[in-house]
Every structure is written in structure tokens, then in C-alpha cells.
Amino acid sequence: MKFKPLIIGNWKLNLFREEAFNLIEFIVKNTPASFKGDIAVAPVMVLLQSIAEKVHGSRIQVSAQNIFHMQNGAYTGESSVRHIKELGVSMAIVGHSERKQYFGETLKHVCLKIKACLLEQVVPVVCIGEKKIESAEIVLNKQLDYILTTISDAQFHNIIIAYEPIWAIGKKVKIDISRTEKIFKLLRKKIGNNTRLLYGGSVTPKNAKDLAQILNINGFLVGSASLSPSMFIEIIKAYL
Ligand code: PEP
User: Fold this and answer.
1) SS3 212
2) Catalytic residue check, 96
3) Domain 6-239 adopts which CATH fold?
4) 157 labelled catalytic
């Protein structure tokens, strides 16, 4: 594989301070030395700095779950890429389906956020995916066509695409491995060989091994299972 695997734990609006500290300490201590990939966790915004301090000197990176595209100004309640970068954050999840569902984010916002991340050399982890009733091929093509217009050829290796079928997020569904493999083949064809592709949606220690075998999947974006210390480590071990 051209890319090292990357496993990101998206903690969403979970884990209060002490719980988050306990989890990150467990991950730092228990990540097997034989895992040669990258790991990141995405805590709530207000814990970014303390989690970044906790992982300092380790191989674990910190990601924001969201950012605002403007650097500063009259935008009450928002945090810019520069703000999170100052805290030691190296990645930001952009366009998660929950942002689209609950906060009205559109592809236009997603593109502005990608651009803002690239300007500050923070890696955007750009989420794409279809609803149950939609055709994956049509929706992914449309989303990528729109997103890719904002990225120059030279920037393709600075972004990460996370394919997250919306119907699989937080639902603990059974994943069809051969269908997933087909979709990643299409995604790879469309995006080329310079961009890491992650899978997200109902990843567990049980299915992680099979998913890790798929050539075009370069790691996972993990929601629920990333809140369990042992499950998250087991998922990392799928790449041993
Ligand atoms: C997610 O929210 O990005 C996600 C993949 O969630 P889960 O792993 O719980 O399906």
C-alpha cells in the first residue's frame, strides 16, 4: 500500500474531561509498537488543547470535528482553523453528515472549509456519502465533482477523503465487504493515487480486519467504537 493506514476516532459530543483524559491515556499506552500507521482522535473543541498536550511526544495526532472557514471577525461562537492550529491540532473533519443533518452544512460550506484548512496546512478529512435511498455512484460522483473543483492538483495529497455511507453511521449495520470494495475502486479511480481514502460507518473490531484487506481503503474514521478503549485498540490492530 502506498499510504500508511490512518485510524481516526471521532468522539463527537461525548466524553467529559476526565473520561477523555482516561481514554487518551489508554490509547497512548496501548497502541502496539508494531502498528506502523497514524492515529488521530477528534475530541470536542474545548478539549482540543488539553488532549494535544496529553499526546505531545507520542505518535497520536489531534483532529477537530469541525472548523469555521473565516479566520476571524464577527462570527459569534465559531473557531477558525488558525485557532485550532495554535492548539496543536493537525487535522479537521469537514462536512460530517451530522453537520449537514443538524447544522445545515452544504457542499458550498464544505468547500470553503477545505480551502481554509489548506491555507493553514491543516489536513481536512472530507466526509462524503450517500443516504440509504440514494445511488452511491451518483451521489459520490456529484459530491466529488463539486469538492474537487476547489482543490488544485498539487493539493490532492494534502487532503483525506472519508467515505461514510450515511445509513451506516452510528447504526451498527452489517457491512457488505464486496460492495464496499467496489465503491472504493470507483473512488480511487476518480480521485487518483495521491489522496488517502478512509472508510467510516459501523466499523468495529469484528469487521475491521476484512475492511483493512480492501486495497483502496487506507484506514478508518471510527465513531461509536472509538469511545471504547479496547475496541479502538482492536481496530488499530486490524492493520498489524
Ligand atoms: C462517524 O460518525 O463518523 C462514524 C463513522 O460513526 P460510527 O463508527 O459510530 O458508525
Assistant:
1) helix
2) yes
3) TIM Barrel (3.20.20)
4) no
